[in-house]
Design brief:
Blueprint: H1 12-15, E1 34-36, E2 42-44, H2 45-60, H3 65-76, H4 80-93, H5 95-128
Antiparallel strand pairs: 1-2
């Protein structure tokens, strides 16, 4: 997977294990060492990088934005507004990546739907077949195959 651009990549692994304080949804993302949110809470560069790293891990699992926001809220207690803000910033900085990523998400959804329909079709065919399929009469010396085979007739 293509690496996302970021301002700094220092201490990537150690930060991903930390849990930041809850952040307010209006926390500005800046290039300075820290910023003050409307609620007076400090948002450090480390907090931003941590959320970015966690989002990148979720992207590797092909999660959509809502799934990422819910996952970070439940597992890392990160405010959904802050996650959304960092997501938007990543989208702005990596427009081409996210364009391709959203196409992959659509493909994932189509594959899951196809697999569901295929399984449903399998169960329908399995339940509609009789226990034994009667053999067709012998025509012109050709013997039909025995067993449970589905034969499609074309007219």
């Amino acid at each position: 997977m293509q690496e996302l651009q970021s301002s700094t990549q220092a201490s990537h692994d150690s930060q991903s294990e930390q849990q930041p304080n809850n952040h307010t949804p209006d926390a500005p993302v800046t290039d300075s060492g820290s910023a003050t949110a409307n609620g007076g809470k400090k948002v450090s560069r480390q907090d931003i990088e941590l959320v970015q790293n966690l989002i990148e891990r979720c992207l590797q699992l092909y999660m959509n934005k809502d799934e990422v926001v819910k996952t970070l809220l439940t597992r890392a207690k990160i405010d959904p507004g802050f996650t959304t803000l960092v997501w938007k910033k990543l989208e702005e900085e990596n427009a081409d990546f996210f364009k391709a990523y959203y196409i992959r998400l659509k493909l994932k959804k189509q594959i899951l739907l196809f697999n569901h329909l295929l399984e449903h079709q399998y169960h329908l065919m399995k339940s509609s077949l009789p226990a034994t399929v009667p053999l067709a009469p012998i025509q012109n010396g050709i013997h039909p195959m025995s067993g449970n085979y589905c034969v499609l007739w074309m007219y």
